[in-house]
Amino acid sequence: MVKVNFDVGFRAASNTSSTKVIAGENSGMILRAFVHTSCFVPLVFAVEAIACVKALQFAKDMGFQRLVLEGDSRMVIKWIISNSVDHSSVTAYINDTRSLNSQFLVCKVKHTLRDGNWAAHQLAKEAFDREESLFWVEEALA
Q1: How far is Cα 84 from Cα 105, in angstroms, rounded to an integer?
Q2: Which Pfam families match (predicted)?
């Protein structure tokens, strides 16, 4: 089973965000990762929901079938796990996440504390200094 951690960084002054996703083994070995910076993002909560969608899409694109998805946004994780209907500004992203989730053989969704998401959080901070998306596939993270 692959563990997929996602996290975001958000700069309200410039409405920019960075998304990072790390896929690794239980041993801690990183298998794949990516960072992406976006502009004109209005709310940090929307960024967290979008990052969750990106994490699942990344896992799907990498061919993972059994995974544990972890993020440190308690509300996003809570909405994904629940079957309740949400009418907020992130409804479409929550629905996209639920749809992608159903395409895996196993996809456990869990909340993690920031400490449990440390590597993804560090990548998010670093991503602000880059203008292009970066992907690491079967190579060392620098």
Answers
A1: 23
A2: RVT_3
Structure tokens at 132: 């292009």
The pLDDT value given to residue 114: 66
Return the structure tokens found at 19: 């998304």
With a CB cutoff of 8 Å and minimum separation 6, the contacts of 44 are 8, 10, 12, 17
Please state whether the predicted TM-score (pTM) of the whole model is above 0.85. no
- List Cβ neighbours of 82 (8 Å cut-off, separation of 6 or more): none
- 26-40, 92-106, 120-134, range with the lowest pLDDT: 120-134
Q: What angle do CA 112, 93, 4 make, to 5 degrees?
A: 35
Domains and CATH numbers, the chain: 2-137 (3.30.420.10)
**Number of Cβ within a 10 Å radius of residue 132:** 8
Partner residues linked to 111 by β-bridges = 71
Helix then strand then coil, in percent of the chain rounded to 5, is: 35, 30, 35
Between 135 and 7, whose confidence is greater? 7
Residue 28: helix, strand or coil by DSSP?
A: coil
